[in-house]
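Sequence, please.
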């Protein structure tokens, strides 16, 4: 299965597929440290993870207390459950990235080895085609979720005037409501500080979801590329007239097929919990967003309708991507 004409820049070819995910993972402090790094770098990454986790906890716990302890009507609590679901899902995705760090590292190394093993130009063209597809899906996830995060930031930068007792104050609205008995988040400077913490936690949440989705897309696309290469080898094997050479090629096909199935199993091990969580939260979000669009339609509240429609579209696209990559990978494995 070799050819004298081959591409030698394996690292760049592998990096092309995972580059966007690498940027995401580094920004989250979750990039697998494949090469040995110094203590200062490890300490910096540990501090980064600690700060991100603390920021998410500061927002998530008061939001849960608000849901359980604040005496609010059902409509208000339904409004609060949407950001709570999103933050819980984002926290879970971040936890998956941190705890499955070594498995992600193994998958990246597996991909790099595949580029080294397969040297023929026609095979590599197929692999590169699927690498581009995985990269496109990763960029799509990042663009959609990044756009949603920017929209949320812009929305919370606006101020509104509220009356507390005998005082009239100006405050920034929170994307995630918080339990006010511990700390009144409406008053300055708590309002501005918590707003900054919400921005930081929102960045981690949106980027964690985008990263897991992107990794699933890149890994699944690479596996599909490998399976298509196997199909090419099998077609050549069917036309081979030399029995001895056919036996050698069949051995290579069987060995590589086992290698691809092992890679698919690793993908499933890393992503199955996150995929299930995203499908559940995505479905819940779409149901709730649809409900609020209908409820706000009678009042024709354009701002609320627009925000709910955008959130609905975001949840629908991310859910579709997960379902799509799972479907095409299943079809390729069965074939």
């Amino acid at each position: 299965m070799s050819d004298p004409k081959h591409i030698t820049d394996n690292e760049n070819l592998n990096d092309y597929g995972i580059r966007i995910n690498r940027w995401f993972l580094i920004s989250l402090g979750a990039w697998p440290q494949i090469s040995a790094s110094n203590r200062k770098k490890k300490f910096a990454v540990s501090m980064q993870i600690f700060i991100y986790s603390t920021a998410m906890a500061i927002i998530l716990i008061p939001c849960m207390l608000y849901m359980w302890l604040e005496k609010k009507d059902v409509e208000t609590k339904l409004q609060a459950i949407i950001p709570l679901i999103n933050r819980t899902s984002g926290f879970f995705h971040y936890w998956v990235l941190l705890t499955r760090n070594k498995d992600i590292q193994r998958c990246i190394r597996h991909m790099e080895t595949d580029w080294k093993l397969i040297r023929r130009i026609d095979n590599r063209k197929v692999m590169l085609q699927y690498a581009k597809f995985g990269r496109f899906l990763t960029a799509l996830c990042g663009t959609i979720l990044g756009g949603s995060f920017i929209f949320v930031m812009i929305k919370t930068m606006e101020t509104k005037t509220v009356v507390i007792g005998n005082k009239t104050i100006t405050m920034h609205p929170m994307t995630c409501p918080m339990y006010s008995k511990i700390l009144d988040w409406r008053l300055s400077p708590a309002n501005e500080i918590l707003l900054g913490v919400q921005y930081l936690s929102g960045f981690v949440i949106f980027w964690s979801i985008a990263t897991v989705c992107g990794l699933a897309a890149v890994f699944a696309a690479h596996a599909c590329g490998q399976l298509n290469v196997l199909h090419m080898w099998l077609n050549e094997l069917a036309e081979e007239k030399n029995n001895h050479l056919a036996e050698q090629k069949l051995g290579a096909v069987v060995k590589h097929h086992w290698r691809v199935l092992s890679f698919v199993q690793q993908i499933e091990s890393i992503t199955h919990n996150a995929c299930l969580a995203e499908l559940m939260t995505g479905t819940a979000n779409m149901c709730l967003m649809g409900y609020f669009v209908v409820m706000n339609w009678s009042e024709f509240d354009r701002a609320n309708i627009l925000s709910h429609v955008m959130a609905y579209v975001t949840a629908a696209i991310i859910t579709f991507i997960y379902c799509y990559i799972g479907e095409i990978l299943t079809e390729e494995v069965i074939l």
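Residues 243-297 form the longest helix (55 residues).
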